[in-house]
Design goal:
This protein has 180 residues and is mainly α. The protein has 6 helices and 2 strands; from the N terminus they run αβααβααα. The longest helix is centred in the first third of the chain and has 18 residues. The chain is flat, with a radius of gyration of 21 Å.
Length: 180
Amino acid sequence: MGLAVTEDEEMFARLTESGARVATVTFPDLGKVSPLARRALPRVLDLNARLCAAADRHGVAVLDTFPHPVTADPRLWSLDRMHAGPLGHARIASGMACTLGLPGHDDWAAPLPRLAPVSALRTASGDARWAVGPWAWRRLRGRSSGDGRTAKRPEPTPWARPHVAGSQGEAEGRAGFPGG
């Protein structure tokens, strides 16, 4: 996690030094999105705190989604529960517009109309079907998720950042990436 924030901070520094107005977003309470993710809460809180501190050091605008209950509403998430769905993207865009001071977006975190209550057992069984079901089905058929796929790089070879012609840092031959 430290590396991710270090890379974000490096990006914040380079972008803000160039004069760009930079914005970022924190992670929502993932445990409320999917009960299986509750164990990640301490890491999410730490990552969000580090991200906010890095953003603060560089004057980066932050849309803090964590404290807003609407961000855990299942209707904002795609079926994989890892990515926002169309409504989620619309809310994030509206939240970012609000964060950047654009008028007409103060209600981005307003709750959606209430859904009928769902029992914890039904929620957990849905999570289990989503997370365990495909894995179990493959095992019953004697298959693996990697069957029929080939490696992107089947032979071990040294890796180097790709060279992008015309990019900043071309004179150093590193496509504008630090350490690249």
